[in-house]
From TrEMBL:
This is Response regulator transcription factor. It comes from the Bacteria. GO terms for biological process: phosphorelay signal transduction system; regulation of DNA-templated transcription. Pfam families: GerE, Response_reg. PROSITE patterns: HTH_LUXR_1 (PS00622), HTH_LUXR_2 (PS50043), RESPONSE_REGULATORY (PS50110). Keywords: DNA-binding, Phosphoprotein, Transcription, Transcription regulation. Residues 150-215 form the HTH luxR-type domain. GO terms for molecular function: DNA binding. The keyword Transcription regulation applies. Residues 9-125 form the Response regulatory domain. The keyword Lipid biosynthesis does not apply. The lineage of its organism: Bacteria, Bacillati, Actinomycetota, Actinomycetes, Streptosporangiales. The modification 4-aspartylphosphate is found at D60.
Length: 219
């Protein structure tokens, strides 16, 4: 029998309060699970985890300031004992692969979260991956494709460049990006030039389209 003391302690991060409330109702109804913290974006989630006392972070993939994918990478680096699950509205192979590369235990579609979330949480706590059926098919297809040509798509941007491209796509000026990331405007401009060069792009519009495609911002 589980007590609240032995329950899995969960952090919920989603920028929609209504979504958090719905997920909290599902999780808190279970005797072995308890939501101990909430966050409205990835950066808030990292701050909340620094206080300790969390076993699992459930992260919405598309949040302001820092996406769920960016937060999952940071959590894997800074809080290796905290497991992560990515929540997404999108049945998107690119997002799925990025979630797994970020060290996440699973990828849960919001449309079926009432059915899948509890399974995913318990699987993560057993150190088992959780994937919905179509995701398993996608992974097998990707594995076979890589096996045939011996390659796989790797992200060509550094984590810092991803931070900057996300903020550019969200409409931040160089000055505001510099303030947000506590770096100089000159450094921001240098990164922007590097990003454009790496991606072979010319302007903010193309960068924004790229950021949407790889899941850094919502369309």
């Amino acid at each position: 029998m589980h007590t609240r003391e032995s329950a899995t302690r969960i952090l919920l991060a989603d920028d929609h309060a209504l979504v958090r409330r719905g997920l909290r109702l599902i999780l808190d109804a279970e005797p072995d699970l308890t939501v101990v913290a909430e966050a409205a974006d990835g950066a808030e989630a990292i701050e909340a985890l620094a206080a300790g006392g969390v076993d699992l972070a459930i992260l919405d993939i598309a949040m302001p300031r820092m996406t769920g994918l960016q937060a999952a990478r940071e959590i894997a680096r800074r809080f290796p004992t905290v497991r992560t699950l990515i929540l997404s509205m999108y049945d998107n192979e690119q997002y799925l692969f990025e979630a797994l590369k970020a060290g996440s235990s699973g990828y849960v579609l919001k449309s079926v979260a009432d059915r899948d979330l509890l399974h995913a949480v318990r699987a993560a706590m057993r150190d088992e991956p959780f994937l919905y059926p179509a995701a398993v098919t996608a992974l097998i297809r990707e594995f076979l494709a890589r096996d045939r040509d011996g390659t796989g798509p790797e992200s060509i941007l550094t984590p810092r460049e991803e931070e900057i491209i996300k903020l550019i796509a969200e409409g931040y000026s160089s000055k505001r990006i510099a303030e947000t990331l506590t770096i100089s405007v000159k450094t921001v401009d240098r990164h922007r030039a590097n990003i454009l060069g790496k991606l072979g792009m010319r302007d903010r519009l193309e960068l924004t389209k790229y950021a949407i495609r790889v899941g850094l911002v919502e369309p």
